[in-house]
Design brief:
- The structure holds two protein chains of two kinds.
- By secondary structure, chain A is of the alpha/beta class.
- Chain A contains four helices and six strands; from the N terminus they run βββαβαβαβα.
- The radius of gyration of chain A is 13 Å and the shape is globular.
- Chain A is 39% helix and 23% strand.
- By secondary structure, chain B is an alpha+beta fold.
- Chain B has two domains: 83 residues; 181 residues, Reverse transcriptase/Diguanylate cyclase domain (Alpha-Beta Plaits, 2-Layer Sandwich), CATH 3.30.70.
- Chain B contains nine helices and seven strands.
- In chain B, the strands form two sheets. In chain B, strands 2-3-1-6-7 form a five-stranded mixed sheet, with helices on both faces.
- In chain B, strand 2 and strand 3 form a beta hairpin.
- Chain B is elongated and about 115 Å long.
- Classes of the chains: A alpha/beta, B alpha+beta.
- At the A-B interface, helix 3 of A face helix 2 of B.
Amino acid sequence: MNNEPVEITHPKFRMWLRPDGIVQLLWGPRVAMGLEDAIAAIDAMTELTGGRRSSLLVDVHDAGPQDRAARVEFVRRGDLVSAVALIVGTPLSRMMGYFFLNVSQPMAPTRLFDDEVSALAWLQELAA
Amino acid sequence: MDRDDVGIRGLERRLEDIASTIQDFAALRFRARAQIGPDGDVVDAVSAGVNFLGEELEASFSEIERRVADRTAELATATEELSHRAFHDQLTGLPNRTLFWDRLSHRLSLADRRQTRFAVLFLDLDNFKAVNDTLGHAAGDRLLVDVAWRIRAALRAGDTAARVGGDEFVVLLDEVATSETALVIAHRLSEALRAPYEIGADRRIAMASIGVVVGPESFGAADAVVAAADAAMYDAKRRGRGRCVLYSKDRHGQAGPPPLGDDERAGLGENSHKALPG
């Protein structure tokens, strides 16, 4: 029996493990993300996956700004992810996505999407 | 004022805030942040982008400052090392000829203002060539290092010892009351140098011929002082090993740089180490 939790709830985000093995992360509306929040998200993913490298679907379409320390931490712990799909929506979230992609330059394949369907399709194609 | 005016005014305020933040960053005030509203609209995106750039600028600036500080410290260390090498003998760590001459010249310049006299000792090891020939240059170097240590240990604070040739050392005794005081110190030094040296598995005795001159007298320059001590040293060497001789104008003549072609100096010069730092 798998004793790992399926969903983790945090004041700023909700994270769950989908049946297809993809981890889904939904940030709260307009919440700003700092280093502590990044660490919490990383710890949550580790708990959900048991530390196994997994695909990650991140919904930031309505999230607040993310500071540099958080971005650096996500890149530093890139060993936990095999690919990352970022769902963006507002101009702010799109700016954050582009900054993460082009300035932080994560190691794992990372792309921006406008919707969940296309984001999931890409992650599933990579995993196949 | 209609809704469009309110909207425009609000937009202007937000853009002014962004412009102000950009100016802060330009002035290296990296703690500034543009306001980001709840809507996440395009102006919020620009604000966030400006803030992100500020963070990256700050990180880069800090890294550059750190590297400059590191390089400055490295440069200071290298400069200090170079400076030290310029004035010290690399083998023994003693001041070299340049530094000694500088200190002696300075002491001469103070002669009128100081109540006490000074003395210069010129030491030449008596059997150094034998050590080099039988035990090798590495052993000879170790002996010189030990000799330098013993000379340093025998001196008082304020005195200066220097290595000026292969097996030649000079000492400036900054303050001596009388010639006898200088001779006592020279004899004490001679005794200290006489104790056996452990060179690897070998045990050797090294003695030094020491010439002593007391100043300021009528010496005009450092060269004359050292030449006088050198002349007295030669006299000591001629009298046997491990002797100390006080310079006397009557006995040793007017001191000055030895003339070119002096056989005795040339003969001893061939046997000396060429050891001054490069």
